[in-house]
Amino acid sequence: MHNNNLKDEVIRISGASPIKCMKCGKCSATCPSFNDMEIAPHMFVDMVVKGRIEELMASNATAHCLSCFACVERCPRGVEPANIIEAIRVIKLRKSGSVQLTPAQIASVIDTEIPQQALVSAFRKFRK
Amino acid sequence: MLKIGVFVCWCGSNIAATVDIDQVVAAAKLQPGVVMATGYQYMCSENGQSLMRKAVEEYKLDGVVICACSPRMHEATFRKNAQRVGLNPFMVEIANIREHCSWIHKDKEQGTIKAIALANAAIAKVSLNAPLISGESSVTKRALVIGGGIAGLQTALDIAEAGFEVDVVERQATIGGNMAKIDKTFPTLDCAACILTPKMVDAASHENIELITYSEVESVKGFVGSFKATIRKKARYVNEKTCTGCGLCMSKCPSKKSKNEFNLGLDNRTSIFIPFAQAIPNVAVIDPQSCIKLTRDKCGLCQSVCEVKAIDFTMQDEIIEREYGAIVVATGFKPIEVDAFDELGYTQNKDVITSLELERLMNAAGPTGGKLVKVSDGSHPTDITFIQCVGSRDCTSRGKEYCSKICCMYTCKHAMLIRDKYPDINVNVFYIDVRTPGKNYDEFYRRAVEDFGVNYIKGQVGKVYAEDGKLIVQGSDLITNEQIFIKSDMVVLASAIEPDPSAKKVASMLTASIDTNNFLTEAHAKLRPVESPTAGIFLSGVCQGPKDIPETVAQAGAAASKVIGLLVKNKLVTSPCIATTDELLCSGCSNCFNICPYGAIGYEDKLINDHGIRETRRIAVVNPALCQGCGACSVACPSGAMDLLGYTNKQIMAEVDAICKR
Amino acid sequence: MQGLEKKIKDRAIELLESGKVDGIIGWEKGQFIYDPTPAVFTKETGLDNFCYNNFCGANLSKYLVGKITSDKKYAVLLKPCDTYSMNQLITEHRVNRDNIYIIGVGCEGHLDVEKIKRNGISGITGVSVDGENVNVGTIYGESTIAKSDVLLGKCEVCRGNAHKISDELIGEELQTPEASDRFEMVNKLEAMTAEERFAFWKGELSRCIRCNACRNACPACTCRVCVFDNGRSGIDSKANASEFEEQMFHIIRAFHVSARCTDCGECSRVCPENIPLHLLNRKYVKDINEFYGEYQAGEEADQRNPLVNFGDKDIDPTVISDKEGN
Amino acid sequence: MQEVKEFKPNIVAFCCNWCSYAGADLAGSSRLSYPADVKIIRVPCSGRVNPMFILKAFEKGADGVIICGCHPGDCHYNTGNFYARRRMTLLYSMLDYMGIEKGRTRVEWVSAAEGAKFSNVMNKFCGDIKELGECVKLGDIRCKD
Amino acid sequence: MIYSYYPGCTLKTKAKELDIYARRSLEALGIQMEELADWQCCGGVYPMAKDEIATKLSSVRTLNQAKELGRPLITLCSACHHVLTLVNHDMKNDSNIRNKANDYSKFDTPYKGETEVIHFLQLLRDVVGFDNLKAKVTNPLKGRKIGAYYGCLLLRPSAKLAFDSPENPTIMEDFIKAIGATPVVYPFRNECCGGYIAVTDKGQATKNVDRIIDSAKYKGCDELVTACPLCMYNVSGNASEGKDISIKYFTELLAEALGVK
After folding, report:
1. Is the confidence metric ipTM above 0.85 for this complex?
2. Distance, CA of B63 to CA of B565 (rounded, Å)
């Protein structure tokens, strides 16, 4: 499944250059969520190059990226995998509008100590 | 007005089939200055050439136009032919009516019209030609080699063998360069010292070679055939001629805490020292930074024990000035600093080392006597992990965008040597690609895997950290798609190599160009790979780009042959098609100077007689030995003071004029 | 302004008397207040006729070019915008810096007498700038006019009151006029169709009488012999045989000064036919800024100009040839 | 009866000696045809082409001028075509600014191995010029009315 | 010099300690700081998508306020510092974001990233100086083995944050030394705790936290310090049973050492 429109959108939204990837795998070597992601960061990059965006969107891997920038920091080619993953997450969100965490559910997960940032990230970044 | 003769070649039917020769001849005769025109079947044949010679003599021609094939084919032939009858070769112009006309057009009428236009353009140009005479410049029969590593030594030896004198200037106290630090060489695994040290001895003992060590070239002036170099010979504080290299001074020196550069700081040395056992010259040198006598005016123990009284604390730097006909750059490389790759823990863990450090650890003459031990505690390692491409193929600010070329092979060598000597050690290698083009290279890599059991992992390492007395190497294995954690005792980083920092300074001194990575640029990647675009400057070894030892030696020999080819000449003939200044027009604005890629334009304050006004003006002067005739300067010059002989503004405009006339 | 004139004059006399300089290059009173001309003042001539008023728009830096081989030392009065030209001349070795003493003089913008006259004011006897307005004294009485309406074209796009090079400053506290976008007209032309542009230029350039005033005033045109006067250049022409040659003269002239032109506006100021020649130079300035990065000729001495430089990722000329639209 | 004559444009091509002139030679020896309207002038380097030459050609009646040089980075003289690239970009932009059809001027990079490219470039350029027709703007004003 | 201070929402509610002790300490150190009058939430999470403008606006407004006062802006919370710095970087370098954000905001003069955003730790390092700080410590925390926990937000992406070496940072260790305690360097001090998924995937967060605590304990840390409310929440609340370790805000230790706790 190739979708070049979606691919262009990913590149535009992320501002990243997946084509610069030389397939060394350093992003996946350094990723703290590697074992939680069914599609690893290096595969994200390669699949974007190949235009396989729908598959990436169907995967739940995006929800496990911590946006910790370890892959961005250590990538020798300046590819910025985290930005690519985020772009897919954003596109997914804009396309479906469904949310992972609904306001009604909040009461069940919230505790008094949760900092605001964690809630914001849960709503905005990870709601799908 | 010139008397011009026009010869139109049929080239059998190659031209004659599409171009009406008679019409071209008839049209040429109508052009101003043309006193004769004729057609002939094959102008390049001996008969054709003699036809031209006869006509030159009979009609007293002072310009000739040949309408024939491409000038790239026979321009030289016809110019030589003109010379045989005393006509200046640059009074011959070619109109290309074959490749640019008859061969591409089918319509004879169109072909003929175009051939006439091309002939007219050549006639217009030749009528503005002036006889040009090639210049000559002398050649100093001595070469300078900058850098005394394997590249510089090989070049020097080859030049010296051909009978020319060579000076090798080496910045360090000994020649030998990086290769002297290496233990074994791939793919044959012979010991580096066994092949390098005999060459060092040969160079030292060769009657045509002078080794100027512990010295740097400070400035170079002049041009091909006659360079003048200023060399600073730094004070060693030890008389090179009297020191016997006995080493007594070293055993007495109380200052023993300086890092031993030769062993990359893995052990310490004294303040007075001989860099390594086979150093050439085998003479001590004093490190002025740590010497107690030189820093605090105490001690002086070495001086008192030296039996030949070679030590002189008052020694000063010495300036040597020499003339050379050719200069070879062989400044070599250094591994990059890997501190910036701190996820790999080089600055945080002693047992994370670079490949060159591993060479010293495995070298029998190294700090451990060749016994491979952990740097941290001297114990025997059981697991070693290699990481390739540290800083190579890296387009971020901390690395180099290019492939360092040698790391795949030396990592393979290291892995193999370790497995051979210590079969109990497990060796893992993280790689992105294994690049082994070269004779017996891939076989070598396969042997490491198949015969020596080295474990290659396709992937990269994200983090190296210490835990439970081991180094944990966290990496990816792209084949199994896993994130893996390998426990290791040592981690070896295959750091990228970069040009020696001196290369940039040397290049600008020589007006030789360098690329964005500070490698020196060759004149042509395929046709002139060992020459710099600046005439008389040659390139040897890694200063031009990453190379292994076999390639370096081959290139060093090639550079030497180019130098010999230059030095063997008594005079250099310079092309007369060069830029020239009209001194009355030049205003000295420097536009031409700024644009010249060869540093061929300089400025002189000249006394000018401008229609009776005598005054000193700043005038651009073209050095005919350096100018290559590209003409960029003539366009940069707004007043038209700078022009290109053979392709003057007026000549080209005359061609334009002839072609555009309807 | 009159206070400033006095200050400059006093200083000039002091410099001449002390022998620090042999001559002062400045402005001399003309017949009217609005026609001062560049002049050299020496001990012999004295400074009685010296003037510095709101009509001293002329850029004096070029007057040093002829003095390059002289062993005399000259002081020159430069307004802020003139100092760019001075830097460019130093870069190109067309003046001898050692023999020049640069006095940076303050500037509040210079006026175009033609514009004043076009506003129906004649018989001008004096002017004074009062903030945004100009009070013009005439034989018929005083009138007031907005300064922005009567500035010289080059002052409308003033680059501020900083002198880029000077040995001393006098009156630098004067406020230079507020600048408008200097590329406004270039942009407007670019937005036209090719036919409109052609018509525009044909209309303008057909008035050219090849008087060479632009060439003579231009501080970048300092060739000993102009290429159009050089018999070996292949394009020499004493007078135009055709309109094409006019076009060619102006294109080549603009090209030769491109990347060296400081956009001082002298070409248009001196043109007797009021051809907006600066719009040619400014097009080059704009293109260079857009294609190769911001560059101001004469910002400092010894800059390497963009036409004797290159980048390996420069835009290709085909981008222009294949450009969409007109 | 008056015959309508087919418009034959006059095209000047400046080719650098080391790449494009050799490329044109290769086009010839490979018999790759292009219109006879193209006439080549040999220059050592594209950096030798003075904007004056181009204007001169138009003055003398050329309908199109094309400059061919080594690919950027491959210049025989290292940097000549880099300078040419800047000069021509600015000159063409100026011609366009003066309302002269920008299609009449062109720069193409053709290596010694690109005989086919040379022929294609010339075919296309001739086609473009034919479409533009005679160089009227510069042609007509050659004489005062 | 007076500095503008940006506390951020969390410091007013869940992370009051981080805020209070910072104010007290600065007073003791003689540095003047004024809370920005009309600050807004930074947005909580940096919107990485290049076309998300609206979610960056609250940061832009805060930054513009600081610019109008002409003072550097001091941040304390790692997350706020991360967001404000990255948005500021965009406003400076990304013309598309800059133009659009300014179109929305209609400030008197467009905001172009002029404000200097400084983290409290940088203030201690570069303005106060750790040597001076050491001299002012009245109650040195002798004998305490403290591990610095940087997390991810403060360090990465280093090209834009330019805070400290992203792989081998030293600023917090130097800080710990200055207040008289013993810093313990451990490898996972710059790895992510998983704060952003703390609500949606506790399991994954726990894994991350455990690894960090293991690493710290192995190297001999008795306690950890942090500048981040997310890390604080995650490390103190989401570790596995029995893995827990004491974690404090660095300002609390600072106040303690300065005797103003």
Report:
1. no
2. 35
